[in-house]
Every structure is written in C-alpha cells, then in structure tokens.
Amino acid sequence: ALPTTTTTPRALDRNNMTTPSRKRQHDDDMEIEGDTKHPFKCLPMYGEHKRAVSSVKLAPSRLTKEHAALCASASADGSVKIWDLGASVDDKTDDSLLHPETTLLGHSRGINEVCWSNGGDPFVATASDDKTLRLWDAQTGDALVEFRGHDNFVFCCEFNGPSNLLVSGSFDETVKLWDVRSGECVCTLPAHSDPVTSVSFNRDSSCVVSASHDGLIRVWDVCTGECLKTIFAAGNPPVSHVTYAPNGKYVLAGTLDSAIRLWPIGVSGKAKCSKTYSSNFHNNSKYCIVSKFMVAQPKRRQCIVTGSESGHVVLYDVQSTKVHQVLDRVHKDVVLAVDAHDKMELLASGGMTKDRTVRFWAPEEESASLKKLRTD
Fold first, then answer.
1. CB contact set of 217 (below 8 Å; sequence gap of 6+)
2. In 3D, which of 307, 259, 238, 243 has the Cα closest to residue 13?
3. Are 260 and 306 in contact (CB under 8 A)?
4. Nearest in space to 167 (alpha carbons), one of 289, 364, 245, 154
5. Model-level pTM?
6. Chain centre distance of CA 144
7. pLDDT truncated to tens, each residue of the chain (376 aa)?
8. What is the DSSP string of 271-338?
9. CA–CA distance from 129 to each of 16, 92, 134, 291 (Å)?
10. CA dihedral for 226, 197, 289, 343, sign (positive or negative)
C-alpha cells in the first residue's frame, strides 16, 4: 500500500519488506585511497530550510557567467531556494548563514526534487507531493507552467538536452513526458509496479532510464515508448536512484542494500553489473539517497559522490571502486541530497529533518577561486 502522506522527503513505504534497516558502524581501519593533496573541505557558509532538504542541484556553468556558482535546494517545507555562492564567499572562518537570492513558493506540499534546465535561461523544474510539477524562473521567482496529470506524489524530474521535454516519475507508478512550453503530457509509460524513484535522460535525449521501489531499472525509447531493457540486481533490492554516466554507456544505480552499481546499457543481451561501490561509511537501507558522477577535473580524479543515512558524504573512485574520501560529518542527520558541479570541483549536500542545512564543499584552491571571482 502507498502511504497517504510523506512526513520525510524521499522516504518510501517499506512495510512490505522483510529486510531490516541496517546501521553500519564507522570503521576507522578501512583503507581509503584518496588524493591527500586536494581534499574536499566544507566551506564556511551554509543554507537552511525549515524542514528536511530533499534535493540540491548546482546550476550548469553556462548559466553562471556572472556568478561563481548557483545552487538550487528543495525541501519538505514546500520551497526552493537559490543560493549564490559567488556573492557569499568571504574570508570568515566560522559558519555563515547564507541568504537566498530567490525563494520559489507555490507548491501546497513538500518538494521532492528540483532540476535546472539545460538551455541558456535560468529555469528550474520541481516535483512535489501535491501531485504536480512546476516550471520556474529562478531569477525572478515566477512560476511559469504547471504540469498536472499524476495521480500521486511526484517524486523525480529531469529536463532533456534541449529542455523542451521534462520527464517525471511518481508514486502512481508511471513515468510521464511533458511538453515544457504547453505543460501538456505527451506520453505516459506504465513503467513499474511500485513508486518510481528516479528518472534520467541519456546524452542525446533519445532514451530515459527509470528506477523503482519494485527493484527494476528500465530503459525507454522516448519516441516509441518501448521498453528497451530491464535491469535488476541479485535479490531485487529497491532502487533508490539512477543516472546516466557522462559517456552515456552506463547507468549508475543506488539500491537499498547500501550499494551503488554501474551497469552497461547496451540494448542487446542481459546486463551484467560492471562495478559495485559499498563501504562502512555508506549506509542506505531506507531512504532514496542520490549518487552523482564528479568528473570536473578528470585528470585529477573521477569519483562518484553519494550521501548516507549515517550523515556522511562519501566519494568513491570510479575505476578502483575504493573510497576516495569521506567528508567531515557536518550534517546532523541523513544526507539525502548531493550534487557535483560540471566545471569546478564543487559539491553540494543537504541534510534531513534534524539538520535541514545545505552545505558546500571544495578543495582549498577552488574555494580561493570562488573568492577571486567575487572580488573581480
């Protein structure tokens, strides 16, 4: 049965599951293979919401010509806040509470995900428990389009490359494609037998991958609506998040067995897991925790960044699968949301109800460049 309300964002009903929630203990003896010369450090500033932070997204660099970096954060409090890091970084060593550049208000219930458009306009889309999606101007705070058609909570959303289509997934077990200009639904895919937890377009926007609490990852042809491939891990653990790799040849999927798996996405033949990422720092058995690729400086490192129910942010080396770095445990609750900038070594993370903060992370040289951009 689906819950009638979500008291915490990105949390799924697990009453029909027999696997207990596992709390992994911190293991100080665990081998960490990292870059000790350029470690990520928490920047001395943070954003804050009134309730749990469900999603954080750093704006594409093409939108930030006059800014060092912009970040959108969504929350169970029903708001999206836009944070301008370039206008906020200073020489303070103590934590400074940021003031949002813009606050987007209009949803009647909590927001599960926010995403930036891929075009030249500063637009964001939101997916909400009020069963709708909305398109916003992040600069003015104006709501531009409302998307209605889902029968239950809308859990996830993403723009395609040209940003003329928006894909969404819902607790009503469907995936929908929307015309961004008109707000009309152009396609409904009866995708899964449980809530849809994550959706992602591939590089050329010809396919969408969806993930669900039913344990399945499915690849869909955008033009025909045909299911091209179905993937699942041994034991069929619920899938909490999925995203395409930057090269478009793999999908990265997080599951509620505290593992992240990399799957080849070739259409022919049965998919075999290429790599598995897990550690004692990475605990995920209850909530839909996001995982992202971090490849802004590929010659220095190529990592996967993820949150944890332990409150950690963990970086894995893509190739070796070993822990690259465990960031300082600044969040006081589960870290549901993480994101990585496309050009800078800059991370964002968001904490749940007992924390409610948005944190930013960078190596010292990136932090210095943010300061320089502000003074130029």
1. 209, 210, 211, 230, 231, 232, 239, 242, 251, 253, 263
2. 238
3. yes
4. 154
5. 0.90
6. 23
7. 333 344 444 665 433 333 222 233 333 334 555 556 789 999 999 999 999 999 999 999 988 865 579 999 999 999 999 999 876 555 455 789 999 999 999 999 999 999 999 988 999 999 999 999 999 999 999 999 999 999 999 999 999 999 999 999 999 999 999 999 999 999 999 999 999 999 999 999 999 999 999 999 999 999 999 999 999 999 999 999 999 999 999 999 999 999 999 999 975 667 899 999 999 999 999 999 999 999 999 999 999 999 999 999 999 999 999 999 999 999 999 999 999 999 999 999 999 999 999 999 999 888 877 765 555 5
8. ----EEE--TT---SSB---EEEE-SSTTT--EEEE--TTS--EEEETTT-SEEEE-----SS-EEEE
9. 22, 38, 12, 22
10. positive
Tokens of 365: 């040289």
Q: Return the structure tokens found at 148.
A: 């209605």
Closest C-alpha to 180, from 205, 198, 155: 205
Place of tokens 């804050």: 48
CB-count burial class (<10 Å; 0-12, 13-18, 19+) for 14: middle
Closest CA to 358 of 62, 95, 94, 68: 95
Cα gap 125→198, rounded to integer Å = 15
